[in-house]
Amino acid sequence: MTTPGRTPASERVLKELRRRIARGFYPPNSYLPAERLLAREFNTSRTPVSDALEALSAEGLVEQCRGRGTRILPASERLRNRPIAILHDACARRESWPESFYLIHGAEETFARLGYPYRRVAVQSVGSVPDAGSLVGQYTGVLMVEAVGREELALDLETRQFPLVVANLEIDLAVSGTCVDHYRIFYDATATLLRMGHRRIAFVGRPLERAFYRRAYAGYANALRDAEIQPDEALIGVCEAPSALNAYFAAHRLLALDDPPTAFVAGRDVLAEGVCRAIEEAGKMVGRDISVIGFDDVSWPSDEPFLTTFREPCHEMGAAAAEMLVERIVTGWRPPERRVLDSPLILRRTAGPRVIYPWTKQMAASEATSGTPGPTLLRQPEGVA
Asked: What is the model's pTM?
């Protein structure tokens, strides 16, 4: 819709110049090209360009300097010293909550690169979530690091059309944010194990109503169905807390089944740690006897790269969320959108072809009485059940 008093050509020029300023194409304190050059680039006359520059000046994005041209104002001048709020859990430290830690750092680096002042706002608990009105009064926009427990605040800010973006939006919420495709990640993890010959594949994760786990389970289950394998509820391990200890007990129960799994898909690397410990305690070798694939590549407790996993691009999601927020601060409110980032598979030592034992209990009894050597491990050819 054309703003009264402006032509479609001036609106087109204004929209593109806003976008370039938001993305840093014109750095702070630099000067825009002369009006005649912009008019030539946009294939229009100088009048629409002049109208667009006046609108940018009225919005506080540029300063028209007589005799020198149009200067891009630094963010500190632009925002009248009102910083951007980075809203996050107080426990977002590298050792205790690495996902949030890297999300924050990705956002901070981007704000610093674009010249926007920001301030961390730590939330101690769900009950201490700040009021939307106070955030609107103090800040020029809010970058929310994950939204679990802060859904009402996010929706309130969105209703006010206040600049808001969620970094790592793991839940279904009608706000803008960055995310990964959890369905596709866990579908691909399961499909990878299926191609390695595994048919008894277990899923260890949080309750389905938590965060992304319903989508994760759907990806796991549909990969099995596409391989004509019906998902088995007996192969599901539920962890009430996101800890290795909870995953250890869940995996211990699954390994005690009469027909135990030969592979596991874990909802987080920290859960995969508990699964690996249970496998080792059962006298099996992780990656040879039983395979494990995790997700995130940040919560594995050891610095030694060991776990096959899908990397959660936390730093990149924080950076992309910061870019999205700056665009909304500069260009104004727009309907919610999601930016989906890739989560690549990192192949390491915990996933391999299914190992089979080409012998039976009767053969074992015969070997025991005859004194012949025990069975030799054979790797199952890819794609063979």
From this structure: 0.75
